[in-house]
């Protein structure tokens, strides 16, 4: 459920303090950065995958934002969900019971999700706050499980009341889990152990161990010691559910070396693994002597992405680098002699040597310059989104063809808004090739299609627009008194994200139900009131609105997860207080009885 972002490819849903792969980070637009919680996700979020549907400041580990969106099958839940056709749930259940879908498991799944979507969106369905809890440590959510105490405690949110699944033994702070990803069994692959067919949590600890943990019992199924020559801190999917990248903290060098002006040539390390069975591809060294004065680097879909303080972004093939510069093939659990030392690869204290060291500049695939390294790839055919690398261009987005860098027709997108917070843009996580542009009072879904009579060029046009519920031309009256005692009235136009007007804060995509979920907030006196709206992903029609009972403070960091019949809100308050609000789908019995009595009355007549 949710955008997997905002985003896009699947990745671990981050808690507010996690520093992760920025694939869930959409491109920011115009606005003032003043530390107030913004509207970010998807995770994925993305599109971000997989982003992230969270709001808050961007990850401190990265200097910019980038996303790669690769096509996958469009979820078919919307294929029969046009604006005028409402599915008959009883008819679908009857057909399912008669065996109409037995030949194709995919058809059964799509039918079930179509039924669930109809139930979620019907008028009598409510979402009830069934559980609220608070914690002094970050809270994370992933596929029906809520994680507390740095993933040590796991609570299932699937039951009518959340229940504890497991709690791992306590450990010192130096051994806590710092980051985690959910691995789910691929369909149709033969795996060596029966436990491999169940989902696992791939976790990175503070003392450089990579663990595979059972999501049902908390048992450690596998463990790999990474290395002692650097501090690994971040986990991300290189290829979703297939290849993971473990990224180290940046090497700043000692304080004495920095005072002496001595720069460390190695910026960071990237350890790359195939998952299930866990097998090593290699550990890559990112060296400034090769790439120049870079500020960050990461992996996505087999592409090494390198960023510079000037706004330049360069792309290289990781496979080509590994083939050309791998010094020695290493296998986990095998004896190895490296640098005069012998040990077992993946076991302490030997760990895994850095076996991919680039000695010459690798072939460049693509480069582009963008403000704050903001860069995304997606669409059909391939296009990319950047902001021109000038501060005065902030909030202006250029959509260009990847093959020749040509600007698409109507490819300059700028949302006319005056607000403190930035608007943001990203490729739609449903892999339709569309683009979502979110501002404080409107959400534009744009489509990319061929120019008539010119198949070589593409154009951007509006698919639909979602508008905030506001009073038109609202302004405040300011009264002043002149020296003569005359009362003068002046009109002051409010900001587009004025807290007293309904403002969009989070936009996410529920891929299984094919719904856009939108959080809108209005400040009433001292309290902020928020509601979560479900919109048809194909037409933008409002299908359902759910009020959130808790107050929404726009200065806090927030995450919203919509996962089938569950809504979960995670809030980070000052002084490291985290709150979690769980909503579950219920059918209002009062409305059901009223509907039943009406239908019986009609029959009696």
From TrEMBL:
GO CC terms in record: Cul4-RING E3 ubiquitin ligase complex
InterPro entries in the cross-refs: DCAF17
Composition-biased stretches (Polar residues): 51-60
Top-rank taxon, per record: Eukaryota
Region entry Disordered, spans: 1-60
GO BP field: protein ubiquitination
Signal peptide: none
Protein name, as recorded: DDB1- and CUL4-associated factor 17
Organism: Galemys pyrenaicus
